[in-house]
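Exercise 7. Given the encoded structure of a 253-residue chain, write a plausible sequence.
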């Protein structure tokens, strides 16, 4: 089973690029999208060209902002939206599909912002989302894919020293949040199979950053420890364009 996660930076915008040929070629069993910037109805309408998928989408109250989706070839047992906390559920940042053997979650974690104004909220979010995941895990394992808006360690961005504790995405508070996930039994699947690989999943549009590979790895698949032996490959698909992110992939045996 292959699962792909992709922050598309606007599903309607990327649909006008090479998105459909790329996804048809990859043909994942499950496709997670973040930052759809569309209503659920618009997502379903836009994605309609991809055949053989059940499509589920969560939207933000604010139009053209945030939003997540799950496309799956296998119909889920159940689908839920949000994490059950009103403060965190107005932006369409989480959608969960329950399958027979595990849960799959698409998440778009809040960005702390250019001036770090949302960093305190981001810390609250991380704590609440971890509780949500661990509660799910009491029933069956979890696989959560998405844009976590943090480079976990120095190897996860091209220029760690100039960014550490200065810019959103590499603040110690955000790193602590990711530490909490991984120390609570959720595996960073890419690092579990590519321990020393310096690969990135997001690049600024400025200064030719992508061409120069001055990037950040901020898109992840985290999975319950019980699934570790089931992980076949975990990849960053840097050659797929259309967004300031590229897709990340997880394949289970």
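Solution.
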């Amino acid at each position: 089973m292959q699962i792909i996660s992709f922050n598309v930076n606007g599903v309607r915008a990327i649909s006008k690029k090479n998105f459909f040929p790329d996804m048809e070629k990859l043909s994942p069993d499950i496709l997670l999208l973040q930052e759809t910037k569309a209503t659920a109805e618009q997502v379903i309408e836009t994605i309609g060209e991809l055949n053989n998928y059940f499509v589920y989408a969560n939207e933000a109250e604010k139009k053209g902002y945030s939003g997540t989706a799950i496309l799956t070839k296998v119909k889920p047992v159940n689908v839920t939206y949000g994490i059950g906390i009103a403060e965190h559920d107005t932006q369409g940042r989480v959608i969960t599909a329950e399958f027979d053997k595990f849960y799959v979650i698409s998440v778009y974690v809040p960005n702390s912002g250019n001036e770090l104004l949302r960093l305190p909220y981001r810390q609250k979010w991380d704590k609440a989302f971890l509780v949500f995941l661990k509660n799910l895990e009491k029933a069956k394992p979890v696989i959560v894919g998405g844009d976590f808006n943090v480079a976990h360690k120095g190897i996860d961005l091209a220029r760690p020293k100039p960014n550490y504790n200065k810019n959103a995405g590499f603040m110690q508070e955000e790193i602590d949040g990711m530490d909490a996930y991984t120390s609570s039994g959720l595996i960073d699947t890419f690092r579990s199979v590519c321990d020393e690989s310096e690969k990135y999943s997001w690049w600024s549009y400025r200064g030719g950053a992508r061409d120069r590979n001055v990037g950040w790895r901020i898109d992840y698949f985290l999975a319950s420890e019980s699934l570790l032996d089931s992980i076949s490959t975990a990849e960053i698909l840097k050659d797929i364009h259309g967004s300031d992110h590229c897709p990340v992939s997880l394949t289970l045996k």
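Remark. The chain has a mean pLDDT of 96. Students should compare their own answers with the one above.
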